[in-house]
Amino acid sequence: MGITRRDLLTATAGTAVLGSTVIPRIGLGATKTLKIGFLAPLTGEVSAWGLPGLYGCEVLVKNINAAGGVQIGEDTYTLEIASFDDEYLPDKALQGFKKIVSEEGAKFVMMLGGDPWPGVQRFANQSKMLATTLLPSDLSPDTPYLLAPCEVHPIYNVTGVEYLARNFPDAKRAVICAQNDSLGIPSVATYEAAFEAAGIEVVDVNIFDPATTDFAPLVTSLMAKKPDIFCYDTAYADFVNLIAQQLHIQGYKGLQISCTCDNYPQIVEKTSKEFMEGFIFQFPDFDDPKLNEPFINFPEPNKFFADYNAAHPGTWTAVSWEYPSIVLQWIAGAKLAGSVEPMQVLEAMKSKPSWPHIFGEADWWGQDLWGINNALVGKWPVVVIRDGKATIAEFGDIPAWWAKNKDVLIKRMRERNQMWDQRA
Amino acid sequence: MEIILQTCVNALVASAFFALMAVGLVLIFGVMGIINFAHGELYMVGAYLVWYFYASLRWPFLVAVLAAFLIVTVIGLLMERTLFRPMRDNPLGGLINSIGLLFILQVLAVQVGGVGLMKNVPPAYRGSLELLPGVAIGNQRLVALVIAAALLVCIWYFLTRTKVGWALRAVAQDRDAAALQGINIDRISMLAMGLGAGMAGMAGALIAPLTRVEPYMGHGVIITAFIVTIVGGIGSLSGAVLAAVLYAFFHTFVTTYWNGTIATMLGLLIMLVVLIVKPTGIMGTRVSE
After folding, report:
1. How far is residue B173's CA from residue B169's CA, in Å, rounded to a whole number?
2. What are the E-state strand segments in A103-172?
3. ipTM of the prediction
4. pTM for the predicted model, two decimal places
5. Every domain of chain B and the residues it spans
6. Structure letter (DSSP) for residue B208
7. Tens digit of pLDDT for each residue in B103-145?
8. Domains, chain A, ordered by start
9. Is B115 in contact with A44 (Cβ distance < 8 A)?
């Protein structure tokens, strides 16, 4: 019992974002309401990677329900998002997880992951609730019901560095800045490994307090190292914005690479097109024509982008499409299982070594890094800003990089205490 | 050498903002004896007003800054009349009121502007001025520095060269004696609160294009303001300005040459040492019971 890309698209597209072009599916049984848990920071500094995901899910669910809901097994379901703001805090996350599961009756819970996950892990295991994270560094042998089916942060960052090294062979000195948290540090280890594998020297790493408000001293410090490449690591969206402004003011002329560059038009506006030209990051706009390639497992991404921006203008970030893509994957898993019960869906999704990831077929992977094969790893886009607009330059191959540089990444992860067996 | 000079430029800008915040806090404490925990949120309101007037309504930046200053000043006047005056003999009550207001202003900011990415406030003055090869200051920062410095000079002139300023300082030194001299304590308290709040609002307004404008932006700033106020000497305006400059240079240099987290830790450590060794701060004076 497996699922192909075609299966996933037919399973989800008819109920997904096609709106009026779709013939509503009439189920055999009565229409029921199915709640999907959404537990992420909706306020505070990390909310840029929570709230836009909720908006994206709402857009997706609205279109699914408008198209008649989703048929799973004998029943037809309309979807409802049960959300809770975990404020990126473990205790709040536990409170929210319990509410979503016990009171709301959700059948799976999407999370950003990171700092809140340890607060939730015990209850998630006890309740055998299927949960997902965008940060596979949450995975360990102790998280059998946690999947990372979309984002393999920060491993995909290697594709950006690989692209940079291939296209700018003369760039040999890099500096990295990162906020000191569970998003920043594993990303530092990954960038260090990627730069090492590419023969680029990391001349300074500045790990800053997430409470930092003035980035002028940090930029002065890093520019003093005369870098060819400035790496923003996985800095929060607002930090990238402010650091880029400072780099521009202090006259930086080199290459720039980052995990994300959310709301980049603002940065272009505040600096210049010339300054941002060639900026490399990892998250595409969904109006990119390359997302219409046949291997992309997301129905009508361009329309989704338009719907999203019409509903929530100016809020699109890296996560706006990620949580919705997880919803689509879960629907495909539930259809395959013929059930909405968490363990049956999990079993269906893990029944094959590979599964259709949004950017193409991907393998269940992670044993070497996280002690469990619960992350989907395949291709990931490398995005470059050209003339003020983000465009997909290529789809990098993470497994291919891993095959060549596995030891370097594990070494760097271990140096930064980021291997699963080093985490408490 | 370039790094040292660039760091000095960075520190100079930080000094002006720290001083604006700290002087406002000191004015309020000195005259009213209340530690205004909502001072950081007044700074936030100033920034939000510039976002609204300048970035949303497209008013000229300086007009938006002036409007923010005036509106936050009025908020300060209302705070004095409704929250602090009834608690004049109960400093703890005033402090608790200010904490309550802190949360109210944060929630209002969330209601008005939502949460998520920071509010987008584009710089009104683009580009940068190259002072020396490799040493630059952004034009927006330069304008903010000049305005902040000018406001501080105006405050100094007002406090030291005008009768009302003398009255304000007299109340700060000894409220009862000042009252015996015929100084209207209510009016002076309102003036201090309005002026202190306005300065916080002005700091937020000026820095809006340079920082994260979001509902919780007052948190970090109020900690810095407390450090500066305590090191300078609670109640001492000149001490607050001196400590702001010293702390800004210290923090900026440690951040540049070492690490920002270490800089903040050392800043707090210095505050603790001052509290232990010289509780009156650099320029504070001991008050006998």
Report:
1. 6
2. 109-111, 131-132, 146-147
3. 0.86
4. 0.85
5. 2-217
6. G
7. 999 999 988 887 777 898 999 998 888 888 888 899 999 999 9
8. 5-153+290-377 (3.40.50.2300), 157-281+380-419 (3.40.50.2300)
9. yes
